[in-house]
Amino acid sequence: MNERVLLDIEVLVIEDDPRIAEINRRFIEKVDGFTVCAIATNEFEAKLQLDVLRPPLVVLDVYFPDTDGLTLLSFIKQHYPDTDVIMLTAAKEAETVVQAVRAGVFDFIVRPLVFERLRATLEEYARFQRQVKAWQEQPSTVEQSEIDNLLQNAGTGRMTGTGVGELWAKGIDKVTCDKVLELLNRRGEVTTGTVGNELGMSRSTARRDLEHLVESGDAHHDQVYGTVGRPERIYRRQRGNEQT
């Protein structure tokens, strides 16, 4: 199948703030092959549009006056199993992220929205849909490599190489790790004690997250030898990560 063939993917935006909903619409429609078919600002509108339009993709917020995004996510997965969901929200609570991923969200993107991040997700989703469509049109058995490729394009940040699944395998919570990175970029250098005191976590958790940042290239470390006791490891931000 030609990878360059574009699908016409309709997207339902569920967002209670009309201004943000319009920004989301403009960003989505800047990506080739995607069209926003409707915007819903509350639970009633969301369920009505889902029933009428049956969109393949929903972009969903977490916070609503009359419900919450996780409840809507569960409703969509129960009643519209062929509809995929990208959470696009200001919510950063670890438990919210965990529940969304376990419920089968395709990706979880936090605001403030960076267009390139959204575009990367939508392009991955288009590749995923192309593969699914090809299999549906020509039913056949598939090889393990084809399955692996489909799952790689199946969302939840996998395309970045540092997705939620990979972090969980290392016992790392992505939201907490992002907070550690933010602190590091703000201060320039930290120790496990600094991170533990600032963010209220154990030294062992701080060290695990900091070592992951070193492994991912977001930080580097040096050994500092004092006059008494064991050497201390100092973690420093990489050049180019300075906050403006």
Counting copies of identical and different chains, the oligomeric state is single chain
Please, what is the average pLDDT? 82
Structural class: alpha/beta
Separation of termini?
Answer: 44 Å
Radius of gyration: 21 Å
Number of helices: 10
**Helical residue percent?**
40-55%
Order of helices and strands: EHEHEHEHEHHHHEHHEE
Describe the strand arrangement of the main beta sheet, using strand numbers.
Answer: 2-1-3-4-5
**Structure summary, number of beta strands:** 8
Query: Beta-strand level of the residues, as a percent range?
Result: 15-25%
Shape: globular
Map the helices and strands.
Elements: E1 9-14, H1 18-29, E2 34-40, H2 43-53, E3 57-60, H3 69-79, E4 84-89, H4 94-102, E5 107-110, H5 115-137, H6 144-152, H7 164-169, H8 174-187, E6 189-190, H9 192-199, H10 203-216, E7 219-224, E8 232-237
Main location: cytoplasm
Organism: Paenibacillus brasilensis
Protein name: Transcriptional regulatory protein
Fold and architecture overview:
This protein is α/β, with parallel strands linked by helices and 244 residues long. 48% of the residues lie in helices and 17% in strands. It has ten helices and eight strands. The strands form two sheets. A five-stranded parallel beta sheet has the order 2-1-3-4-5, sandwiched between helices. The longest helix has 23 residues. The chain is globular.
